[in-house]
Amino acid sequence: MSLLFESIQFGSLKLDNKIVIAPMCQYSATEQGEVTYWHEQQWANYALSGAGLCIVEATAVQPEGRISYADLGLWNDIQRDQIKTLLTKIKTLSPMPFAIQLAHAGRKASTDKPWDGKGQFKPEEAHGWQTVSASDLPFNPTDHPPHALSQDEIQKVIQDFADAAVRAVDAGFDLIEVHAAHGYLLHQFMSPLSNKRSDEYGGSFENRIRLTLEVFQAMKNAVPHDYPIGVRISATDWMNGQDSWGVDSSVGLSKALEQLGAVYIHVSSGGLHAKQEIKIGANYQVPFAEAVKKVVHIPVIAVGMITEAQQAENILKSEQADAIALARAMLYEPRWPWHAAAALGANIEIAPQYLRCQPHGLKELFKAF
């Protein structure tokens, strides 16, 4: 029996297999942060993939929390209602659960779409606005400096995460993921490279993780009692020789999140500093997931350059992680789970309309929903 195709429990939510579609920004929303037809076809594609869970893209809890002017938002009820309508349609295609990643980009906001390549817009430019962060340090030296959040503004961020969580539940999502990775606002507060505060949100490790824990707790308090919330973290800033966020800090954060009720830790890395030195290669982030898995009792998701079925299976067999997240591999091959099932000799449930395409000689491989 393939471990990859065994079920797994994320709190109250059961997945049919351990393949997770990681959140990937599409930069295809309206300037009001609302869904478009692009999201409809993209989410439908995800729904028919055979994965155990889909986490849709980073979705901003405040207008100024968007990475770009074309990012999704969930800061108002119009956005919620449009997502609910779309998600209701998508769920007629497949029983696969859908999750949403709630986020705030902090100082890495106010940018162009990546394929247009203009970088960050200044506040006075079209598509631009004033960014915020833990301190007034920009991500790039050429960026407009962010505004350092006041205590009252921090409380507003916390409340907006909680309000967005309520909207996510109302919209029909089965799980919420908190985006505390990739150099965005929560990560900016956690790393000493970007947080130079002297109040209770800066300085010590306990102070720097305070915002992430308070955001998580506020969201937990706002949603139904057993509603599952997971967290994505960057395990390291990839800044060797500097006082930065690293694996030991991630281990401490993960233990604290587990105590608050997180249903999983999704382990990525990087994104905090423009001069990061990432050693990219197959499984390059898996050791970070393994380090977290050793100290928590909730599932740990590994991600990053995992592209082959046997590779994913081996990560699970060696107990380096409990589930596998795929991003670009799923964009390149939206039926990756089908091919993985064939390679590992596992059964997978798919839409009955597709049953006729199962590989010759593997007549029992595909089963209908």
Automatic annotation (TrEMBL):
A matching Pfam family: Oxidored_FMN
Cofactor(s) needed for function: FMN
All copies of domain NADH:flavin oxidoreductase/NADH oxidase N-terminal, residue ranges: 4-342
Originating species: Acinetobacter terrae
CDD domains: OYE_YqiM_FMN
InterPro entries recorded: Aldolase_TIM, OxRdtase_FMN_N, YqjM-like
Keyword Acetylation: no
Record keywords, A-Z: Flavoprotein, FMN, NADP, Oxidoreductase
Protein name (Swiss-Prot/TrEMBL): NADH:flavin oxidoreductase/NADH oxidase
